[in-house]
Every structure is written in C-alpha cells, then in structure tokens.
Specification:
Layout: H1 3-26, H2 28-41, E1 44-45, H3 52-56, E2 62-64, H4 72-84, E3 93-94, E4 102-103, H5 124-128, H6 131-157, H7 162-174, H8 176-180, H9 187-206, H10 209-227, H11 232-252, H12 261-284, H13 286-293, H14 310-317, H15 336-339, H16 348-359, H17 365-382, H18 387-392, H19 403-420, H20 427-448, H21 455-473, H22 477-491, E5 498-500, H23 503-506, H24 509-520, E6 525-528, H25 555-559, H26 568-571, E7 576-581, E8 589-593, E9 596-601, H27 603-609, E10 613-616, E11 627-635, E12 638-645
Parallel strand pairs: 6-10, 7-9
Antiparallel strand pairs: 1-5, 2-5, 3-4, 8-9, 10-12, 11-12
Length: 647
C-alpha cells in the first residue's frame, strides 16, 4: 500500500469520525429521547430497591453494579412512597402513609393527580405507567435531562467548545456527590432547573423577538419547578452560583443584548405569575408547613454559619479524589454519601482563576464574579455572621451542604479558564504544581479514612491527579477531557446499580398477600420489630401503616400514649419509627437518632391506636382477655397477625 493511499484512508477516517460527532451533536435531543424511550421500555433504573430481594426473598433485579444499603433515603423511603401512590389514585393527601392524611406533594414530593404535578415532570411516568416503568422514567429522565442541561450551559460557559462542554456535563452529572444523593433531596432537579433558568434567560436576551416568548415560558416553568425542589440547603447557594453565572453573561454580551421597556414589563409579569402559582401551591399545604416548622427536627432551622473550620474544609471539603474509591470502599467515621464531593480538581481552578485575575488587564466577568461568590461561601463556612445578614441573604437555611455549590464554582472556574485563556506556563511550574495537586489529593484520601486505605491507593491517586493536572497546565485539553470522562464514569457511574424492573417488590409473595388482605378486609397496620427495612413494606402493598416513614408527626396519635406530653420532644419530628410490642420499658419512647425513635407498646396501646394488623418477623403470643392475636400469614420468616379486641 503506497503512502498516498494510506494518507487518503487516514483522512477519510478522520472525516467520518468528525461527521459522526457532528451528527450526534446535531441530533442530540432526538437521540436522547430515543434512548430515554428504550431505557423506560426495558425498565432500566438506578434504584437500590433490589435490597428488598434479600428481605422478601424475591427476584434480584441488578444487572450491573450493586445495591447500596446506605442509600436508605432512596430504597427505604422515596421509592416505597412512590409505589404507595398507586393504591389510592395518586392523591395530594394520602391515607396510606402514616395511616393518616399525609401531604404527598410537598414533603418527599411524590406523583399526585393534581395540577401542581405539572412542575414535577420526572414524576409523570408514575401517573401513566406501571411502577417498574415509572421508576425508570424517574431515574433515566433526570439523568438524561441533567446531562443535556449541563451540556447546553457548558456550551455557553465555554463559548461553544464542545469537548469542554461535554466534560462539564459529565462532571455535573456523574460527580460522586451527585450520584450518591441522586434520587433524594432533589439534587438532580435543583441542578437541572437552575441551569435551564440560566439558559432560558440568556437565550431570551440574545434571541430575536419572535423566539422570546418560548424562552420566557421556559423561565417561568423552570423557576416554579426550582422553587418546589424544596431543599433550601442546596437551593439557596446553587441559586447564588447560577445567578452569578447569568449576571456575568449579561455583562459579557451587553453589546448584543437588546432590552426594551416591554421586556421589563414581561419579566415583571413573569415574576408575578411565578409568585401567584407558588403561593397557591403552598396554600394547599399551609397546615403541613406549620406542623413542620414546629417540629423538633427538622423544625425552623436558622443558621448563621455552615460551621466548617478552615482545617476541616481543607481536609474534607477538597477531598474530591476520595470519590475514586467510594464505589469500592466504605469510609468509617461517616458514610459515603456525606463524604462525597464534586469532582472539581480543587483548588486548581481557583489557583488558575487567581492567576488569570492578576495577569489579565481585561476582565472576565464570570471568573471575577465567581471568585467573589466563592470567597463569600468560604467565609460562610468558617465565620459566624449576624442573624439579620443570614435572614436577608436567605443563607439561614444553608448548612455544610454548601460544599456542593463550592464544588460547582470550582468546576465552572476550571472549565471557563480552559475555554478562554491561552496561558503559557513553564514546564517547571507545570510539574511543580501538578506534584502539589497530586500530593494534596493523596493526603485528603489518607485523612478521610486512614485505616481503610494503604500505599497502593495513595500511589494511584497521586499519579491519576498528577496526570490530569499536567494535562490541564500543559494545555492538552482533549487528553484531560477523555481521562476525566473515563474517571467520572468510574467514580460516579459505578455508585448506583444498573437495575431492571421492580420485581423485588412486584414478585414478592408477602407484598401480594398484604395486598390481598388489605383489599378484602382493610385496616390499620403496624410493622413490629427492629428489623431494618420492614416499616415501609405494607405501604407498597397499599396497606395504611402507622409507622411507615412519618414525614411529619401525627401529634394527636402519640398523645394518646403520652397524656402528659413527657416525650413530645422525641416524637415531634420527621421520623423512622420502630415499634416493639410486649416488652416493658421505663420510657415508652426512646430517641435513637435525630430521625429515628422507638416506641414500646402493650395491648392497651394497640387498642388506642386502632391497630388491626401487625407485620413482624417475631412470633407474638400475646393474646389476653382483651386482645386476641390470630396469625393469618406465615412465610419466609414473616408473620401477619390480625387483632380482635374482645371488649
């Protein structure tokens, strides 16, 4: 084969690859939609609900990876709540959870057949599909939407450099903190809608007038959806971050932005509409809001600092490299969810931003504004602030969860600098700074859990971060992007399992029998015993259960057992509830954790609570002259007792 022919083949290959990439970019929304349909059709999701296969002796549904017991807020709370809605036509207020009227939209937001669900698009699948496909719709819809919204904002941040935009999207979607919290606390929704707000506003400002109506509608919709993501500890700082990004874009493109009086009127009308709709939804849940504000936990939180010392921030706030090992190692002093971080390469982005700020006479608004808000966030972590300041800035709800927003700033700073600054750094500084970053990363891995890692982990961490940082400093951006994507697919993509269907629930004989019992002779249930995972089993079969997750307390119920309110500080909270029958205890209520208490019951207490069925793994031979226990189900070490009160 002559050399000219080989060159032609190489050029044709390059052109084909280039065209392939361009086609994927051009048809990205269509391809994403097709992928979404396929994934939902085959009921693919990332839930750890397969843990119930071990509890219920039902089919295991994991195709790849493994279930995560630590993700209990997902498999033990959020998903059972979602499945319970199928048994009473998706009401706004359900009588299944807590065996008492329970707000299903506001607290642990679930799918409801009520107009506010318009602003929870990822719950729509539950309303029209069976549980397995609804679960897939929820998981895959959020994953794909987060990636697409991040990519589109990345294009704006990087001035349409696709490689860096793709890298930004992967970091925002698969960073460990995103994946370890993916199905709860609305972390995906917060990032999706905040980024979409920026995109809609930016597109509005630079677009022709005939397209502006579409973007203003998107702004209104995303704003309301953002408000009802309802996790202020993340919402408030993320709102600051993306507002600063939007503000910097307005300044950057001020010469091409045409803003007329009619635009001011339109935005004012938009804010009025957002306010009216939000207030109308909140009024539906006003009584619930009052109850929650008066609880001991979470109560009316008021923070004047995030309470993170400088040393703790250095040790645990910048330990993004630990995320490389969290899929295969469990830390000891806390848990993998709490220790996970954005894969933000801190403090590299801040260092380069500082150098850019000092060396360039021409301002980059985004870099400078983000440095400013980062300084404020770091000060909020370390220092105590006046209460009035916390209130007017809405920071009074912001705890150590601010670490998420700090990480996002670091990511945007780094990607922005790579996109706009043609810097030149000497080889000596490249190597020195890369060594510093690598040593620092290995140190944060060591300090996070010194007893579970060894020299092998520190060495791999060192060389991985050294290479990545060297690629950045030597301007090998494509190498950096490829390696970062591969690393994030591992450190974030391996967190949640790739699972199929909801067979661990739907194929369970226990679930089917509870469903049969409840349909033929409905009554109030409790789950007895301290067995992990059983308290929310009955609600997945449609059975009203007192000690299913109490997202807020039913005070009147507990006061039947506590006439003098001696234990109100224990049960007046969001709580997982363990119920023990027949065991004497000096304290009827015991607080196990801030979100978990145990209550000890006797037969007379069961009568007061009007309990008719008990699900337990214990044999209960507690019949007396007042109450008769009849075992009506016994399989796989589970027992169901029906109670008959004799007077």
């Amino acid at each position: 084969m002559n050399s000219n022919f080989r060159i032609n083949i190489t050029l044709m290959h390059a052109i084909n690859i280039s065209n392939f990439g361009k086609n994927i970019f051009y048809y990205r929304f269509l391809l994403s939609f097709i992928l979404f349909i396929i994934l939902v059709f085959f009921e693919i999701h990332g839930s750890s609900i397969g843990i119930y296969s071990q509890i219920l002796n039902s089919p295991d549904i994991v195709l790849f990876g493994k279930n995560r017991p630590i993700r209990s807020d997902e498999w033990f709370v959020n998903t059972p709540l979602a499945f319970s809605q199928y048994y009473n036509a998706f009401p706004y207020f359900s009588d299944i959870v807590r065996a008492h009227s329970t707000d299903m939209f506001l607290m642990y937001g679930q799918a409801v057949k009520d107009w506010p669900v318009i602003f929870r698009p990822f719950h729509w699948g539950y309303l029209i599909l069976d549980p397995g496909k609804g679960l897939s719709f929820f998981w895959m819809g959020r994953l794909i939407a987060l990636f697409l919204s991040s990519f589109e904002l990345g294009r704006i941040i990087t001035r349409d450099k696709h490689f860096l935009s793709f890298t930004y999207a992967v970091i925002m979607t698969f960073s460990p903190i995103i994946q370890w919290w993916f199905a709860v606390n609305s972390i995906a929704e917060i990032l999706i809608f905040s980024q979409c707000i920026v995109i809609c506003c930016f597109k509005y400002f630079i677009s022709e007038s005939r397209k502006r109506l579409l973007y203003i509608i998107g702004f209104i919709y995303c704003s309301i959806s953002y408000i009802f993501s309802l996790y202020p500890a993340w919402q408030v700082p993320c709102a600051y971050v993306f507002f600063v990004v939007l503000l910097s874009l307005i300044f950057e493109y001020k010469k091409v932005i045409s803003f007329k009086k009619t635009d001011i009127v339109l935005f004012l009308l938009s804010f009025i509409l957002i306010t009216i709709i939000s207030i109308d939804i909140l009024l539906k849940s006003i009584d619930v809001i009052k109850i929650i504000k008066n609880t001991v936990y979470p109560g009316s939180r008021f923070c004047t600092t995030a309470g993170i010392s400088m040393l703790d921030f250095i040790n645990f706030g910048c330990n993004y490299a630990l995320g490389m090992w969290l899929p295969i190692k469990d830390v000891l002093y806390t848990n993998n969810c709490e220790i996970s971080r954005m894969f933000d390469f801190s403090p590299l982005g801040l260092i380069l931003a500082g150098i850019y700020f000092l060396k360039n006479k021409k301002w980059d608004y985004m870099i400078n504004f983000l440095i400013g808000i980062q300084v404020f966030f770091l000060a909020w972590c370390i220092f105590n602030w006046p209460a009035w300041f916390a209130k007017i800035t809405f920071m009074y709800n912001v705890t150590f969860r601010i670490i998420l927003a700090i990480g996002i700033i670091n990511v945007i700073l780094l990607i922005r600098i790579l996109a706009i600054w043609k810097y030149s750094i000497s080889r000596t500084i490249q190597i020195t700074l890369s060594i510093f970053m690598a040593l620092f990363s290995a140190y944060t891995v060591y300090i996070s859990s010194p007893t579970i890692f060894n020299f092998k982990y520190y060495t791999i961490t060192f060389f991985t971060i050294f290479i990545l940082c060297f690629f950045v400093l030597s301007k090998h951006y494509k190498c950096f992007s490829v390696m970062t994507v591969l690393l994030l697919i591992w450190s974030g993509g391996m967190v949640n399992p790739i699972s199929h269907t909801a067979a661990s629930i739907s194929e369970s004989s226990l679930i089917k029998n509870i469903q049969y019992i409840n349909e033929n002779d409905p009554g109030i249930w409790i789950a007895e015993g301290d067995e992990l995972g059983i308290q929310n089993i009955p609600i997945m079969a449609g059975a009203a259960t007192i000690n299913s997750i109490n997202t807020y307390p039913v005070l009147a119920r507990w006061e039947l057992l506590d006439k003098n309110h001696d234990f109100k500080n224990i049960y007046n909270r969001y709580a997982h509830i363990t119920m023990i029958i027949g065991k004497e205890n000096n304290n009827k209520f015991i607080l196990n954790f801030p979100d978990h208490f145990t209550v000890f019951l006797q037969n007379d207490d069961l009568r007061k609570l009007q309990v008719q069925y008990i699900l337990t793994k214990n044999k209960l031979d507690l019949s007396d002259t007042d109450v008769r226990y009849t075992m009506i189900y016994n399989d796989n070490n589970f027992y169901v007792y029906k109670l008959q009160y004799l007077w």
